[in-house]
Design goal:
With 491 residues, the protein is mainly alpha-helical. It has a single domain, classed as Amino acid/polyamine transporter I, CATH 1.20.1740. The protein contains 19 helices and two strands. A hairpin with a 2-residue loop joins strand 1 and strand 2. Helix 3 packs parallel to helix 12 and helix 11 runs antiparallel to helix 12. The chain is globular and about 70 Å long. The protein starts with a helix and ends with a helix. About 2% of the residues have low confidence.
Length: 491
């Protein structure tokens, strides 16, 4: 029976789907190789490294010492959404994260729009973290061997200047491109191998952050926290406005929640392990964020954060008067931030895999390598796009765009909870359930996301609107006609 245009937009994918329908191209499926520890480390690895290693330089000039409140606001918002993710991942343990949740509850059109948000989120996050990794690599080389990467090979073509975007011909940021290529090689070899490498890197990263906090607290000065709020009103960041703006900047660092849910089809006992992994990762991440943020602000006045490269390493060098602590931290960052970029690329490839499997984008993204059982072609395409952005664009343009995609994804996940509860009212599925009913926590989560969105720049909203227009056009031209649900309905 043919469907009307509106019915096609709102058609949903059944929650319980048989294995053949969920298989990749050629009948292969993703291998369930991830346990609870590896899954939690995926969540921790996706988050710690972005918010602390890099965005303090962007967030502190907006909020001053009150950036601590920005992290708390972001953490509370992420915590509310984590509960929603936990319930949906227990009921819909599939690759694709928010996309799969939206497809099973709200409808195909909303799911495709959500997928576009996630692709923006993961792709730009991978580029931004790779660029930040380059700063720490250069700091390490400068302190360890007294050599720097030539400026022409570590600065992008498009940079942020006093009057907006500026072009610097002949410039290319080579180090992040090398990092992305290495990540692509790792992911193409197989998920289990990538997860094991990631777990080691995460443990190194946590150790490095404890090392930083221990030394930074030795130079702690409570006077650095006064005035607590940013007193400068000239750029619109005074008082709580700065806190809200900084919350929007740092929020993307909670992208790890999405990455855990993305791994649903590769997790052992996903109904148990995915909810636990999401909540455990959030608790670990929030604790470390607060520890390092307080230590950094206590060791250095807020005014010095603006424009710093490899900020945490510079703080250690200033506190101790020696280069060796900066060398240790930069080396740890170079090693461990690899995992952030690795997992951002991983998340994007698995979302593309899920969308392609549903027929909404070409089949090349769902083809699985017979030997490694990973989507190699998909990974290559993603890495090429991430390399182009990382090599030519300044990271200052990327942070808020990633946050916008994350906030939109979190909002849709929150909406999906009451919708799924309503659909399963007659025969509810066992597993974790959001406390206090299906409306309170999801409603608070949506409100918190909207509050943070208020602090994002007009430019961010404009670029996001252009990206959404492109996504909608792609769905109407290709996705709607090639959808598996459309093919099944026609048959």
């Amino acid at each position: 029976m043919s469907q009307t245009f509106i019915q096609q937009l709102g058609r949903t994918k059944p929650v319980a789907r048989g294995a053949p329908a969920e298989a990749g191209h050629g009948g292969d499926t993703l291998k369930r190789s991830l346990g609870l520890f590896s899954l939690t480390m995926i969540g921790v690895g996706s988050t710690i490294g972005t918010g602390i290693f890099f965005t303090m330089v962007e967030a502190v000039p907006k909020a001053g010492p009150s950036v601590i409140l920005s992290f708390i606001i972001a953490a509370v918002t992420a915590g509310l959404t984590a509960l929603c993710y936990a319930e949906l991942s227990a009921r819909i343990p599939a690759s694709g994260s928010s996309y799969s949740f939206a497809y099973a509850t709200i409808g195909e059109f909303a799911a495709f729009v959500m997928a576009a948000c996630l692709l923006l989120e993961y792709g730009l996050a991978a580029s931004a973290t790779a660029i930040g990794w380059s700063d720490y690599l250069n700091n390490f080389l400068q302190n360890a061997v007294h050599w720097q990467i030539p400026a022409a090979l570590r600065s992008p073509l498009i940079v942020s200047g006093p009057n907006g975007a500026e072009l610097h011909p002949g410039r290319f940021n080579l180090p992040p491109v090398i990092l992305v290529v290495l990540c692509g090689v790792m992911l193409s070899r197989g998920t289990k191998e990538s997860a094991t490498t990631n777990a080691v890197m995460v443990l190194i990263k946590l150790g490095i952050l404890v090392f930083f906090a221990a030394i930074a607290f030795s130079g702690f000065d409570a006077k650095n926290f006064f005035p607590f709020f940013n007193p400068d009103q000239s750029k619109g960041f005074g008082g709580m406005l700065g806190v809200t703006a900084a919350a929007g900047t740092v929020f993307f660092s909670f992208i790890g929640l999405d990455t855990v849910a993305c791994a649903g089809e590769e997790v052992q006992d996903p109904k148990r392990n995915v909810p636990i992994g999401i909540i455990a990762a959030l608790l670990i991440v929030t604790g470390f964020y607060m520890l390092v943020a307080i230590a950094a602000l206590g060791a250095q006045p807020a005014a010095k954060f603006a424009g710093q490269e490899a900020g945490l390493s510079v703080i250690l060098e200033n506190v101790t008067g020696h280069a060796w602590p900066a060398i240790v931290l930069s080396a740890g960052a170079v090693i461990s931030v690899f995992s952030v970029t690795l997992l951002s690329i991983y998340g994007q490839t698995r979302i593309l895999f899920a969308i392609s499997r549903d027929g909404l984008i070409p089949q090349v993204f769902q083809r699985i390598n017979v030997r490694t059982r990973t989507p190699v072609g998909n990974t290559v395409i993603v890495c090429v796009m991430v390399c182009l952005v990382a090599g030519f664009v300044d990271s200052e343009f990327l942070w808020d765009m990633v946050s916008m995609g994350t906030l939109t994804a979190f909002s849709v996940v929150s909406i999906a909870v009451p919708v799924l509860r309503h659909k399963q009212a007659a025969a509810p599925t066992a597993g974790f359930r959001v406390p206090f009913g299906p409306y309170l926590v999801p409603g608070l989560s949506i409100a918190a996301c909207a509050f943070i969105m208020r602090g994002l720049s007009v430019m961010t909203l404009r670029v996001f609107a252009i990206w959404m227009a492109f996504a909608i056009m792609s769905y109407l031209v290709y996705g709607m006609r090639h959808s598996r649900l459309n093919v099944a309905g026609a048959a």
